[in-house]
Amino acid sequence: MASGGFYGRGGRGRSILDALKQPARKPGQQEEQAQAQAAAPITPQSSDATPKPPAAPITFGRGGGLLAMMQKAQPSSQPGALAETTAPKPAPAMPFTMPIGRGLGGMKELLQKAAQGRGMPAPSQVSSRPSTSGSSTSAQPPAEPVPSSSRAPPHPSAAGAAPSPAPPSEEMSRLAIYERREAVHRSGSEGKVMPFSANHIRVKCKNSGVFQYDVKFDPVIDSKGMRIGMLNEHKAVIGQTKAFDGRLLFLPIRLPQTETVLHSQRKTDGINVTITIRLTTVVDPTQCAHLYNIVFRRIMSILDMCQVGRYYYNPHTPSQVPQHKLEVWPGYISSIKEQEGGLLLNLDASHRVLRTETVLDVMCQYRKNYNISIRDAEQPLLINRPRKKREPGEREPKIEMICLVPELCYMTGLTDEMRSDFRLMKDIAVHTRVTPMQRIIAMKKFIRSINTNDEARKQLENWGLELETETIRIEGRLLKEEKIKMRQKDFMAGPEADFGRDVTRSEVLVAVDLRNWIVLYTKKDTPRATEYIQMMKRVCPQMGIQIQEPLRRDLKDDRTETFVRNLRESVNPRVQMVVVICPTSRDDRYSAIKKFCCVECPVPSQVIISKTIGNPNKLRSVTQKIALQMNCKLGGELWAVEIPLKDLMIVGIDVYHDATKGKRSIAGFVASTNRTCTRWFSRVHFQLPHEELVNGLKTSLLSALRTYHEINHKLPEKIIVYRDGVGDGQLKVVSEHEVKQLATCFKHFPNYEPKLSVVVVQKRINTRLFYQTGPDRIDNPPPGSVMDHTITRRDWYDFFLVSQHVRQGTVSPTHYIVVHDGSSMKPDHMQRLAYKMTHMYYNWPGTVRVPAPCQYAHKLAYLVGQSIHKEPSELLSDRLFFL
């Protein structure tokens, strides 16, 4: 378990914290401890007392809860039935009880909105039925919920249907399985059909539904642990399998009565407590993904997997890298979601690199640097204070202190020095870069380990779940190769979408002659600088760029002040380009040079590390790439692809979080300004700390539209926005907040209503696509592979695109989610445009993972956030000065 940069081991590979928590996993022990802690007397209240409704919607934890993800309003009780407004800490997993805490607590927010307009009975309409005969359950006759007449048919992945309705009472006629929206299906048809598979496994749902109950305690019990303990006393009635967050109870079976009354005794003071369990909703099993993910976390523990960070790894079969004091733990990333093709388990192989040196070893190494000795007999302990949210009735959250022994704690993660070691990273890659076939084998091994483990298999069976043994097989499409257009000839990008050799042998689309430029270097690098200049004179004319002798400045030393002072003395308005050859890579020197050239005295600049041009055998190819980059920074255009759409503007947006200046966020905005999308306008905006969404979009887009009009003498008719850096939880905010900002810009121009589409680009995803080359053989999909059905989102218009070719490991597709579709483009056109844009990043003569405007916006935001920390001069806004 990771905590503060280290992890603990008890015995072999077991976290210290895990070992300490093991006793808490025994059945009933957690509830007994919670009851013992709740010693303060609680004033009894009448059974008809109704808690006050919360002032704002209630959500638990980061995930927003199980049904908060659905947002489709199931029928439930009215908002006034909810009492708790704080997020309780998740209780440890138990063999048969799964406290929901952060995962399912978000259902309360949904319940506040569910009853409105759905015909659900309010709590005042349902009479409290305490038992008068002293029995543990009420004598109310059973009744089945009545499905809604407008309900969609059961999902194909569900094995069973809803129970047949019995003659309902007036109360039960209002109870229904909620009405579902139709799935969003937007698929294309162009391209070659190819057999694909993905790291998704179908999940079969055998139960007709998950039954949701509202649980009330009379008198009111404030302690969540005590409520869980009291409910656990009645397993003979409610069964062994349940999920309970203190108020909402979810069962895989339906209780005989609609309202069940149970009786318990509070152990702290002996007061009798009446527990009323009322059926409120029958949830479609395919929409309980968050609940099933909690089940899978329990299965990971059953399989003796160790949680490090967010994911689970196997500490018993590590791969050793002894020469670097490292070991690699194999693991899995799992997530169940309802996709367009039903309930699917997204399963991917993962690896965690851990250091074999302990915290004590690192502490003892201080002696070498500071001459400080650490005595083992007086070994200090590491203090860990985990964050705990406030419980109901607490003024301040309780602070729990955990003391860890450094001798038993091992360091996690890699240092910057390790990451810069090419040999070390290469040795690690042997274990972490797995082929598609190796991923498939790992997934099958995981499924087999679940099916052969009785306890793990029982966890799934209790909720009516069953996993298929094979990964899903689907058909995808391969888009056509793109034609690359240069000044004098065109050529195809090729099956691997790598056209670097053809680009360097052809004249660029638009060349800017280099006539007035400066080269700065130290005396030590004089020979390398001379060879570089001579090579520039040879390769530039072949690419259509005319070049003249530069002004050379020989520096006496390599101090940052010396570089900046010479720049101030040399740069004037006639200088086109500044080339600085640095002897070593130093962030402070690079930042000072870029800040001068981008803010103080705006001029395109090129910084070259001396080692880069030090190998005579590679000097020609390196110089060609530098020359192309310099031509872009001067305002030139390298190549283009055919874009049939006219009057089109393409926008790219990304956000970088600055580590300095109070952790501000820098939003990079880039927009095309010509028909071929080869010229770009750029802007940056600084935002509040931790703010991800862009609030300065309006100003940036207005400036881009004015620039577009100045160049083309008209405004664009279509605007496609590619938005990077957005997680799943922000999709609705982007579709509503940012789209509205963009739309308000159009009112500043008379009679202007362009067609706008906003596409979220996600590259940090766990989905993998595999090309089925044979019955039992798979490989990486080629560039241009598209998947737009089955594994896509059920409620969004989206698709996956593989745009780049990889030679090692498994290729990662990019996920495109169209959160606003106002351009009326066909899915084929939207997919093809995204693929075309991956060819247009001028820093690489090939395809990249994301569209070029997204990569440009990332480079701009990164440069400002990492080096400049100020807004660049507007004089550079029409050039790619940030490459």
Give me a quick take on this structure.
By secondary structure, the protein is α+β, with helices and mostly antiparallel strands. Helix content is 25%, strand content 24%.
Task: Give a structural overview.
This protein is α+β, with helices and mostly antiparallel strands. The chain folds into 4 domains: 1-22 and 354-412, no CATH class; 38-151 and 210-287, no CATH class; 511-633, Rossmann fold (3-Layer(aba) Sandwich), CATH 3.40.50; 642-876, Ribonuclease H-like superfamily/Ribonuclease H (Nucleotidyltransferase, domain 5, 2-Layer Sandwich), CATH 3.30.420. Helices cover 25% and strands 24% of the residues. The chain is built from 21 helices and 37 strands. The chain has a 12-stranded mixed sheet with strand order 30-29-28-31-32-37-36-35-20-4-33-34, sandwiched between helices. Strands 1, 2, 5, 11, 12, 13, 14, 15, 18 and 19 form a 10-stranded antiparallel sheet that branches. A 6-stranded mixed sheet has the order 3-7-8-6-10-9. α14 (526-542) packs across α17 and α18 packs across α19. The protein starts with a strand and ends in a 15-residue tail after the last helix.
**In angstroms, what is the radius of gyration?**
31 Å
Compute the average pLDDT. 79
Q: What structural category arises from helix and sheet content?
A: alpha+beta
Q: What's the β-strand tally? A: 37
Query: Which CATH-level-2 architecture of the largest domain?
Result: 2-Layer Sandwich
**Number of separate helices:** 21
Low-confidence stretches are: 1-177
The span between the termini is: 40 Å
Q: How would a crystallographer describe the biggest sheet?
A: 12 strands, mixed
| Proportion of strand residues | 15-25%
Kindly provide the name of the CATH class of the largest domain. Answer: Alpha Beta
Count of spatially separate domains: 4
How much helix, percentage-wise, in residues? 25-40%
What is the third-level CATH name, the topology of the largest domain? Answer: Nucleotidyltransferase, domain 5
Fourth-level CATH superfamily of the largest domain:
Ribonuclease H-like superfamily/Ribonuclease H
Instruction: Using the alpha-carbon principal axes, give the shape.
Output: globular
- The strand order across the widest sheet is 30-29-28-31-32-37-36-35-20-4-33-34
